[in-house]
Amino acid sequence: MIFLLEYQSIFYIIEITIMNIVAKPKILLIDDDELILESFQSCFESLGYEADCESNPEKALERIKSNEYDLIFLDLKMEPIDGYFVLSEIKKTNPFTTVIIISGFGEFDDAIEAVEKGAYHIIKKPIDFKDLQFFTKKAWEFHLIKTELRKLKQELGEKSVHSNKFITKNPELLKTLELLKEIAQSDIPVLLRGESGTGKELLAEMIHEASHRREYPLIKINFASIPEDFLESELFGYTQGVFPEATQDKLGKLELADGGTIFLDGIGEISTSFQAKLLQVLQTKEFEPLGQFKTKKIDVRIISAININIEEAIKEKSFREDLYYSLKGVEFEIPPLRDRVEDIPLLVEFFIQKFKNPDLDVKISQEAMQLLKTYRWSGNVRELQNVIHRAVVLTKNGLITSKQLPLEIQNRNIHNEELVSLEELEKTHIKKVLQKTSDYKEASRILGIDLTTLWRKRKKYQID
Question: E strands along 137-241, which residues?
């Protein structure tokens, strides 16, 4: 039996082999009616399946804690513990078990509530023997498909994760990384702010890998790269025939991320009308695929990233303030590379090791390093990575010099103070004044600042 799944714009074939379907499921039947136990067990035996039967819900809980069942058939109306409590314990102990609710006359509304809490389906008593056979086989097939899909999502999620080592010695960024570790285990939404290429996606991966959701996938969606007309179908999914190109059902990113984390990149690029739809999903944790009128519930951790001035966007009414506060459970600002020059030598060495031939020893000249340290890096770490990759490819003798750097970096006049950041200019000027004066009092007078301010700036710039 073959199923076609589209995942992250790639089609994968899930094949549930005949051997798998013939393989016997591990079944537990929980009902305080002995006749139901006998009739259901007879049905399972006719299919070649074996089942544990339990009329006492307390003993059933003991079985659940000591065994991993594929299918559990559960009656709701039992004493002294009802089926709702048993269902909640199943979901805590074995969340991947497929649970089928056995519903009696007049209990259908209660059974629907149980389905909303995680049960797979409802069987209404009395049930025809052949219907029960058919349903049990379908429930087993569903369980196999669900298991294969979960494995596939996990495998593909793992393949998309890069090294979780965020390279920095910047004091402020190191504090940020420590805070990220502290909040990773919670489900609080995280908003990452910073220019493109600063490492927001890598931080999202690190949060996911450190969280209790790491066994589930991390699904990424970049709103900036998707046309507005396709956003709903990408995020929510759709059913076959909802529009001419919809030749089959497609799972949306939200559903693929169920149980795990979804990374909403470029959140500032979406229209206010789509922002309203996204806000509703964040508030209710529910959505409807295009072409469906059945609401689906999701359990996901939200991490989002933005590279615009969100405060200005809110003032201009181009970004909803309520959506901002829904995304901003915790907010982190990632500084641009030009503001953490101390990280450039570390990153350069990392990228050299990443791209060089393992048999060659590649170094970089002091002149080339100085050019890299004084360049503005509008593309941040991503741009630096591409520059070093190019330089490693072009170097002939194992030494990267200025000649292997792009022309815009080669031609940069490193002595041109107009192109140096204000902080670097201030640091250099304070150093010059201190070198030419006899004491701090005279230096503070020349600089036009008091002694306390001079002390703070010496500490900030690490000037002895």
Answer: 190-193, 218-222, 237-238
Question: Last residue of a domain, which of 123, 156, 189?
Answer: 156
My answer on whether 453 and 393 are in the same domain is no
Q: Quick one: 326 and 178 in the same domain? A: yes
Sequence-distant (≥ 6) Cβ neighbours of residue 113 within 8 angstroms: 84
Block residue for tokens 């966007």: 313
Instruction: Return the sign of the alpha-carbon dihedral for residues 208, 212, 216, 219.
Output: negative
- The reply to whether 144 and 197 lie within a common domain is no
pTM of the model: 0.57
Give the structural domain span for 400.
338-410
Structure tokens at 420: 């140096």
**Cβ-based neighbours of 95, under 8 Å, separated by 6 or more:** none
230 assigned to some structural domain: yes
Q: At how many degrees (to 10) do helices 108-116 and 83-93 cross?
A: 20
Instruction: Give every CB contact of residue 118 below 8 A, 6+ residues apart in sequence.
Output: 87, 91, 99
Q: What is the pLDDT of residues 265-320, one digit of tens each?
A: 999 989 999 999 999 999 999 999 888 888 899 999 999 999 989 999 999 999 99
Residues 68, 31 within the same domain = yes
Q: Measure the CA–CA gap between 182 and 73, rounded to whole angstroms.
A: 40
Taking only Cα atoms into account, the Rg of the chain, rounded to an integer number of angstroms, comes to 30
Which of 358 and 2 is assigned the larger pLDDT? Answer: 358
Q: What is the pLDDT of residues 233-247, one digit of tens each?
A: 999 988 888 888 878
Span 90-145, pLDDT tens digits: 988 888 899 998 887 666 666 677 777 788 888 888 888 888 999 999 889 888 87
Count how many domains the chain has: 4
| Rounded Cα gap, residues 167 and 148, in angstroms | 36
